[in-house]
């Protein structure tokens, strides 16, 4: 804010205590700061009006005046002062949603400050090394939840795989079990990299699971028969392609089935010849029972050869009814 001046005549006689032994805020904070040896007071601009009153009390008591600086307030999405009405202000709630402390701290530090290196992802020692109060912004910074999620995602993707897997598996097991599904640690382990690519906070795993997007990894899907062929196919074409896929999959070795690209290589020539949409839609639907899902070759590699053959056969049986 630069230099700020006040006409002290406008302050009038302000109250500093309710009684001899009951001091109010202005008097108490001045005495406390002096006894603590505070030399610099950096606080929000909503305290600007308090500062001249506190300086007058300091002078009256013979205290040394600290250096003051006032920074802009954090704003909600509607650019009003951040509050419980305009956004969640409880740090605990962000932890409960799965935001990492270091990511949250990094984001908050960048609100209203741009380091001269222009970097965004920084550790605390790096921030301390680069911080200069002169680089604080002059206007209030808007608290952006999507930007906070972006920061958290950077920290999640940079987390060592073993550490990420340990926490992700614990959350996934709890969420899968809560849906009444049978948990498989082996299946869960295969989903770690997919989750790392898709989530921004730990809570996203619970949301994905609660919405049924992982169900087909832990139980047999239910089929809405009319959807198996897809928009580009018919029940007859779907039966033709699923029968062809049944033969192709049966010929893929167990070692190849551990790799999505190997499965794709064995299926792709047929799919390209017959039409990728016409072939891969019923294949995906047979595996998941869903119109939308991750890459079907990845899903097949997680489910394993025997389960894939079983589900293709189940989809064919549904079409035959």
Automatic annotation (TrEMBL):
GO terms for biological process: glutamyl-tRNA aminoacylation. The keyword Nucleotidyltransferase does not apply. Gene3D superfamilies: 1.10.10.350, Glutamyl-trna Synthetase, Domain 2, Glutamyl-tRNA Synthetase, Domain 3, HUPs. GO terms for cellular component: cytosol. GO terms for molecular function: ATP binding; glutamate-tRNA ligase activity; tRNA binding. It holds the Pfam family Anticodon_2. SUPFAM superfamilies: An anticodon-binding domain of class I aminoacyl-tRNA synthetases, Nucleotidylyl transferase. This is Glutamate-tRNA ligase. It comes from Candidatus Giovannonibacteria bacterium GW2011_GWA2_53_7.
């Amino acid at each position: 804010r630069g230099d700020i001046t006040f006409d002290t005549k406008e302050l009038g006689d302000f109250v500093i205590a309710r009684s001899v032994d009951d001091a109010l805020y202005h008097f108490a904070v001045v005495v406390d700061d002096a006894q603590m040896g505070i030399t610099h007071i950096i606080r929000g601009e909503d305290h600007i009006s308090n500062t001249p009153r506190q300086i007058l009390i300091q002078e009256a008591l013979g205290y040394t005046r600290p250096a003051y600086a006032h920074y802009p307030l954090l704003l909600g999405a509607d650019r009003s002062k951040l509050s419980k009405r305009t956004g969640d202000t409880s740090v605990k709630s962000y932890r409960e949603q799965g935001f990492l402390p270091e990511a949250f701290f990094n984001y908050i530090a960048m609100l209203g400050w741009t380091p001269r290196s222009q970097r965004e992802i920084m550790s605390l020692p790096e921030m301390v090394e680069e911080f200069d109060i002169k680089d604080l912004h002059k206007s209030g910074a808007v608290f952006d939840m999507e930007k906070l999620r972006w920061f958290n995602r950077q920290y999640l993707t940079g987390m060592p795989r073993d550490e990420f897997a340990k926490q992700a598996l614990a959350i996934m097991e709890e969420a899968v079990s809560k849906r009444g599904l049978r948990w498989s640690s082996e299946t869960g382990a295969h989903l770690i990299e997919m989750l790392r690519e898709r989530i921004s906070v730990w809570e996203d795993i619970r949301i994905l699971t609660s919405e049924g997007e992982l169900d087909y990894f832990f139980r047999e899907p239910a089929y809405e028969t009319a959807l198996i062929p897809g928009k580009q196919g018919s029940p007859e074409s779907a039966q033709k392609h699923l029968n062809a896929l049944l033969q192709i999959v049966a010929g893929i070795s167990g070692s190849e089935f551990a790799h999505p690209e190997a499965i794709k290589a064995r299926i792709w020539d047929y799919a390209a010849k017959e039409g990728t949409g016409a072939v891969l839609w019923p294949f995906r639907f047979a595996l998941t029972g869903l119109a939308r899902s991750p890459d079907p070759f990845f899903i097949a590699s997680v489910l394993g050869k025997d389960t894939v053959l079983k589900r293709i056969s189940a989809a064919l049986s549904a079409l035959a009814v």
